[in-house]
């Protein structure tokens, strides 16, 4: 984070629509809600992200995407219908240009719509009709944070049973992981509705924060000392961020909000309603573009600006509206500056303004809304640094602890409680919903001793019953009844899902299974595949046989007795690169998670063929020796034969493994053979790719062969683990691996204790072995290979010397490029200032990390960069290349510097900045240490890996 800003602004867009997909018909008005939101909100937001990214304009905001919305975005039927919808819009715009040829201002607007909708159609096709992957891309790139929501946007406080609340949240968590490849940190509680019972449920589901209305904090006990300008914590340590009323009013208010400006487009004047009332020819013209039954709908063809309250509206002028959006953005930012200045004077930490809105406001209701958001980030006022745009998660990194209060029941609905969703028109809903909850829990309780004997059909029936109940629980139906927009539809949806729920449980009760009906219901509501009836079952009530079943992010059984067969070509004491240490650390922490780990690796002279090392069962195999030298690929094949033969002996001697975990392509053959032989899931960790190591140049036969083996390994694996978001993209692009099959789990480091005074004194003495007291030490450790970029660091030393003459580079490690690097040093006449240590042991490495003035890792390709973490946890400032995993570890200027990859002057400048400004370097080093402690400890990484293991059981 920028240390100079006075406060923060968090812009949050809640994107949600009820599940309005209808398999039987394509002419439901409600289904068009989705098409209109895609056209006017979701695609324009993504295009805005593209423009900002392409223009290198920094932006940061939060988007919540609800599971029903995500379900419709990925649904093939909805994709097909949406393309047809866009095609029809383009056709209408073409006709409108002809119809309005005598009204130039309207003809120009029709041409504008034609160009706009054609552009969106092309954009949608260019995205492969997969907008979810675009949102994921911008989260992976660090521009947005995505929050989850409950399964069907249910009003959680009005649920009768805790199990129902938890099931709704678990599905939200699971659907998020399925789409975005990581666990959600935040959740948008539907309608911002909170009740105290949710606190422990959120904690159990791994949620860190949520959003509430100001009403909640204003009535909290005790009253929060910082008011609305900082989050609070519930008794379970879950953070609640309150909506700021001042910034909300400026956008939401129908009286003073920006969207009511006369220059903006009028939403309520559309030719779908304007044409054909008294003219049969006009009606024949517009009839194909409204519903088949003749019901009027919005076509999207709107020609007027707001311009006044009477019916005599003036034509819309896009340039005026764009200009007004920019002016309003500037005004909004000015108001936030003044607000933060006022808050800062009475605060002990940087104040945060939280501005949450329905995403559909921007573009759908307020046509210019996306332009306004874009103007916020492009505005010069935003670049001056008075405040910064951040996400709630960012704020918690800076201030992880908040005041603990008792937060009361609240929502962001009318008057702050629940009257929108519970009043005379819709109160009948809850009696039926509560009866359904009772029945489901009662049925599961009655069936618990028989569940393990259920057929696959019975399992599907129970899953679908849970899904129907969740769809009936959607808060949208009660909201629509309150608003009286389409109350008949909303009531019918509630009744239909409840009726289907009871039909399904009747099958279970009478053990008469109507498979045709079941299949029809599954096709009608083809959404939320992670829904499971197991979510409603208390763990302690299950029959022992069900202890092999998993649900949500939790398992119905301890993994205490699960065994993993780990395959790795290097393992301590044999350490060639970072893989050996990563496998060792992961394995020993998996043991603490109750996993029995057996590692099969190659023999090492002086080490036993079998030993238990840190409770890890280590098996070292002998590779068949050849009288004549063999090439590398033949040696790899022989290694795999030895691993396979040994593993088969283990299996035949009584060992029963639950998983195979293969590390990199060198163990591909053995992994493939053992998966087929044992019939158990295979997890593959790809630590790096041949394509990446060679910067995309794969010309030699051996390189192509390795690339093919990597492709096959990712194909046969049940799940692929990578260590950074950049590697996620690399694996998807190189091997066409689906996103749902990839898990991103970073590597970690062992946290070290701080030096006491005697150790610090000894370190100063030890430093004299490498440098004079007045010399600055720049330290690099790692493999001496081209992709690590050490040559760039050596090339940068003369520029560093120009600013800091007494600077020494220490290069630790070995590799095939060692002689070339020494030759480069000699040619540059830098021998007196560069020390090559060769291989060093861990203790020496740790001392050098701590005694260095700056650690530099100038990689040209780096899937992760664990050495950077080791430097960060040593309390030493770091400079890295802005590439791969390194780029994701470091927040530039906050906990380190990122130089342009391969750019000598960029690297020299950033190293010089660290050496010349020790106060800045110290601050970054402190932030870096905090980050390592919070994000990269092996315990949490092992727990995440265990979740991957659990997940493959259910596939």
From TrEMBL:
Residues 11-338 form the Glycoside hydrolase family 57 N-terminal domain. Keywords: Carbohydrate metabolism. Residues 432-536 form the 1,4-alpha-glucan branching enzyme C-terminal domain. Substrate binds at residues 243, 260, 412, 476. The active site is at 191 (nucleophile), 358 (proton donor). It comes from the Bacteria. GO terms for biological process: alpha-glucan biosynthetic process. The keyword Methyltransferase does not apply. Residues 576-752 form the Glycosyltransferase subfamily 4-like N-terminal domain. Residues 773-929 form the Glycosyl transferase family domain. GO terms for cellular component: extracellular region. GO terms for molecular function: 1,4-alpha-glucan branching enzyme activity. Belongs to the glycosyl hydrolase 57 family. This is 1,4-alpha-glucan branching protein. It comes from Paenibacillus selenitireducens.
């Amino acid at each position: 984070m920028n240390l100079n800003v006075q406060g923060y602004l968090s812009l949050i867009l809640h994107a949600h629509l009820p599940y309005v997909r209808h398999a039987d018909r394509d002419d439901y008005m409600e289904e068009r809600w989705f098409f209109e939101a895609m056209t006017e909100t979701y695609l324009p937001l993504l295009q805005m992200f593209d423009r900002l990214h392409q223009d290198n304009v920094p932006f940061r905001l939060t988007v919540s995407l609800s599971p029903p919305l995500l379900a419709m975005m990925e649904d093939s039927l909805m994709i097909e219908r949406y393309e047809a919808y866009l095609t029809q819009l383009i056709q209408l715009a073409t006709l409108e240009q002809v119809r309005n040829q005598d009204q130039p201002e309207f003809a120009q607007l029709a041409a504008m719509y034609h160009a706009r909708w054609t552009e969106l159609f092309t954009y949608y096709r260019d995205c492969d009709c997969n907008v979810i992957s675009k949102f994921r891309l911008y989260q992976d790139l660090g521009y947005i944070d995505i929050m989850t929501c409950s399964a069907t946007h249910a009003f959680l406080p009005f649920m009768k049973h805790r199990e129902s609340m938890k099931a709704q949240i678990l599905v939200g968590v699971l659907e998020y992981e399925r789409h975005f490849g990581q666990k959600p940190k935040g959740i948008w509680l539907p309608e911002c509705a909170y009740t105290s019972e949710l606190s422990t449920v959120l904690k159990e589901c791994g949620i860190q924060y949520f959003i509430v209305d100001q009403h909640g904090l204003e009535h909290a006990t005790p009253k929060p000392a910082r008011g609305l300008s900082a989050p609070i914590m519930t008794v379970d340590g879950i953070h609640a961020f309150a909506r700021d009323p001042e910034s909300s009013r400026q956008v939401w208010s129908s009286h003073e909000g920006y969207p009511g400006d006369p220059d903006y487009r009028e939403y309520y004047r559309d030719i779908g309603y304007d044409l054909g009332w008294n003219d049969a020819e006009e009606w024949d013209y517009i009839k194909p573009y409204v519903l088949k039954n003749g019901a009027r709908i919005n076509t999207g063809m709107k020609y007027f600006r707001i311009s006044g309250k009477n019916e005599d509206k003036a034509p819309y002028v896009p340039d005026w509206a764009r200009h007004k959006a920019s002016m309003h953005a500037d005004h909004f930012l000015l108001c936030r500056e003044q607000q933060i200045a006022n808050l800062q004077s009475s605060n002990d930490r940087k104040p945060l303004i939280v501005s949450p809105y329905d995403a559909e406001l921007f573009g759908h209701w307020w046509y210019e809304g996306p332009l306004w958001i874009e103007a916020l980030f492009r505005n010069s006022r935003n670049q001056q640094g008075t405040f910064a745009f951040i996400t709630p998660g960012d704020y918690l990194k800076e201030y992880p602890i908040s005041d603990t209060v008792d937060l009361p029941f609240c929502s962001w609905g009318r008057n702050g409680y629940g009257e929108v969703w519970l009043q005379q028109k819709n109160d009948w809903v809850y009696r039926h919903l509560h009866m359904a909850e009772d029945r489901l829990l009662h049925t599961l309780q009655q069936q618990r001793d028989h569940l393990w004997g259920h057929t696959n059909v019975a399992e599907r029936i129970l899953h679908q019953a849970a899904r129907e109940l969740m769809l009936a629980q959607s808060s949208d139906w009660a909201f629509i009844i309150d608003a009286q927009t389409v109350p008949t539809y909303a009531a019918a949806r509630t009744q239909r899902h409840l009726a289907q729920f009871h039909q399904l449980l009747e099958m279970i009760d009478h053990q008469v299974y109507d498979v045709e009906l079941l299949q029809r219901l599954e096709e009608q509501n083809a959404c939320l595949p992670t829904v499971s009836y197991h979510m409603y079952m208390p763990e302690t009530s299950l029959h022992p046989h069900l202890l092999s079943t998993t649900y949500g992010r939790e398992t119905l059984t301890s993994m205490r007795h699960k065994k993993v067969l780990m395959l790795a070509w290097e393992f301590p004491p044999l350490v060639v690169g970072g893989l050996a240490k990563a496998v060792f650390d992961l394995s020993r922490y998996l043991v603490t998670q109750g996993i029995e780990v057996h590692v099969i690796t190659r023999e090492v002279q002086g080490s036993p063929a079998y030993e238990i090392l840190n409770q890890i069962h280590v098996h070292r195999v002998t590779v068949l020796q050849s009288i004549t030298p063999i090439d590398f690929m033949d040696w790899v094949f022989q290694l795999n034969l030895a691993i396979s033969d040994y593993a088969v002996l283990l299996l035949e001697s009584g060992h029963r493994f639950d998983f195979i975990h293969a590390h990199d392509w060198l163990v591909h053959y053995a992994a493939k053979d053992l998966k087929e032989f044992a019939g158990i899931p295979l997890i593959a960790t790809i630590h790096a790719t041949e394509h990446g190591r060679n910067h995309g140049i794969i010309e030699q036969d051996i390189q192509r062969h390795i690339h093919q083996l990597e492709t096959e390994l990712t194909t046969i694996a049940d799940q692929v683990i990578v260590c950074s978001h950049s590697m996620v993209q690399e694996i998807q692009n190189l091997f066409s691996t689906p996103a749902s099959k990839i898990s991103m789990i970073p590597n970690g480091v062992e946290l070290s204790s701080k030096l006491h005074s005697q150790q610090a004194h000894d370190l100063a003495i030890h430093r004299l072995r490498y440098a004079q007291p007045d010399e600055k030490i720049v330290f690099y450790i790692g493999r001496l290979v081209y992709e690590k970029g050490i040559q760039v660091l050596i090339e940068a030393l003369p520029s560093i010397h120009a600013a800091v003459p007494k600077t020494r580079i220490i290069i630790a490690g070995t590799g095939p490029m060692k002689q070339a690097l020494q030759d480069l040093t000699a040619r540059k006449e830098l021998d007196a200032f560069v020390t090559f240590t060769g291989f060093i042991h861990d203790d020496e490495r740790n001392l050098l990390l701590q005694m260095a003035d700056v650690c530099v890792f100038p990689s040209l390709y780096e899937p992760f960069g664990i050495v950077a973490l080791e430097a960060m946890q040593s309390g030493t400032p770091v400079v890295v290349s802005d590439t791969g995993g390194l780029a994701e570890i470091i927040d530039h200027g906050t906990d380190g510097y990122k130089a342009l990859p391969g750019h000598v002057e960029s690297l020299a400048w950033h190293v010089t900045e660290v050496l010349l400004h020790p106060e800045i370097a110290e601050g970054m080093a402190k932030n870096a240490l905090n980050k390592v402690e919070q994000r990269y400890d092996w315990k949490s990484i092992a727990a995440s890996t265990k979740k991957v293991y659990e997940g493959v059981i259910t596939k």
